[in-house]
């Protein structure tokens, strides 16, 4: 008997009658693993969950080699927001903040805020980065605007997260795709937007993917592609930590060893993996010539 994935899954689909392609992401255990890493305030937990779902959502219609990340930095209470999805469907994310945070986070009101979407393979030095204009208070609207500007394609994005699930739905109008009916149906995109507008956050969070798509778009000839499993996962390695320490230089590494009784401990903020280095380890890593294009990030 075939098992139907209803959590930690990415579904690609086509609304063939309307000439619209879509992606639906539903996260359960993977999101709870990320959310459980810190005592996030409720408003921030929701935005982090939406960002994690969005990082997976944006991989749905691209050929990905490496990872896609969504990152926001600001000088306000929300200092950092980061989520990443790899080409293997491994997700991770975190946020840093200063108390007190407002009950509702308005991204457009954050001082000196910058949001970037980065796609590529850091190991090979192949990366593309696009900046997201933060003129909208919520992440979904900001991403819709990004797609409209960068791809010249209208997009409709819906994001929601609570303590149990994080869900994202993205729809894009493709002018020359779909069947004969789609070419002649000038109102198709408007109709799809109206149908999507009937979707409440509670329904989005509580309804299994296939049931949700049928409920919304059953008259639009929904064609589902094979689902893609997702899971929590971190790309940190001892080698990457060594690369970071090596980039600090001998003086800083030896000063850290002296300050910490001869042992450096590095803890990954994403997965809590601990890496320890004594003086012998430090001498070895400092004496090794780094490989070309070696990444200088622990994660």
From TrEMBL:
Listed SUPFAM superfamilies: Hsp33 domain, HSP33 redox switch-like
One Pfam family this sequence matches: HSP33
Range of residues in the leader sequence: none
Zinc recorded as keyword: yes
Key words, A-Z: Chaperone, Cytoplasm, Disulfide bond, Redox-active center, Zinc
Name of protein: Molecular chaperone Hsp33
Natural source organism: Dyella japonica
């Amino acid at each position: 008997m075939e098992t139907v994935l209803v959590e930690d899954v990415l579904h690609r689909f086509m609304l063939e009658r309307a000439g619209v392609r879509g992606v639906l992401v539903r996260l359960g255990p993977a999101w709870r693993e990320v959310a459980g890493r810190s005592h996030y305030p409720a408003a921030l937990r929701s935005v982090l969950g939406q960002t994690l779902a969005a990082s997976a959502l944006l991989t749905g219609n691209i050929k990905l080699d490496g990872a896609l990340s969504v990152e926001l930095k600001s000088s306000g209470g929300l200092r950092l927001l980061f989520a990443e999805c790899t080409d293997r469907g491994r997700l991770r994310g975190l946020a840093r903040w200063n108390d007190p945070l407002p009950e509702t986070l308005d991204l457009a009101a954050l001082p000196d805020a910058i949001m970037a979407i980065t796609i590529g393979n850091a190991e090979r030095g192949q990366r593309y980065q696009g900046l997201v204009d933060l003129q909208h208070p919520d992440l979904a609207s900001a991403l819709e605007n990004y797609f409209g500007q960068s791809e010249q394609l209208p997009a409709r994005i819906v994001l929601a997260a609570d303590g149990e699930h994080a869900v994202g739905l993205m729809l894009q109008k493709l002018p020359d795709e779909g069947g004969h009916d789609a070419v002649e149906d000038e109102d198709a995109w408007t109709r799809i937007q109206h149908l999507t507008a009937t979707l409440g956050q509670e329904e989005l969070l509580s309804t299994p993917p296939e049931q949700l798509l049928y409920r919304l778009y059953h008259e639009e000839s929904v064609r589902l592609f094979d689902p893609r499993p997702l899971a929590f996962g971190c790309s940190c390695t001892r080698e990457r930590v060594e690369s970071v320490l090596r980039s600090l230089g001998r003086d800083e590494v030896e000063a850290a060893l002296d300050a910490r009784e001869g042992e450096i401990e590095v803890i990954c903020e994403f997965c809590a993996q601990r890496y320890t280095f004594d003086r012998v380890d430090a001498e070895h890593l400092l004496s090794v010539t780094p490989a070309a294009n070696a990444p200088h990030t622990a994660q």
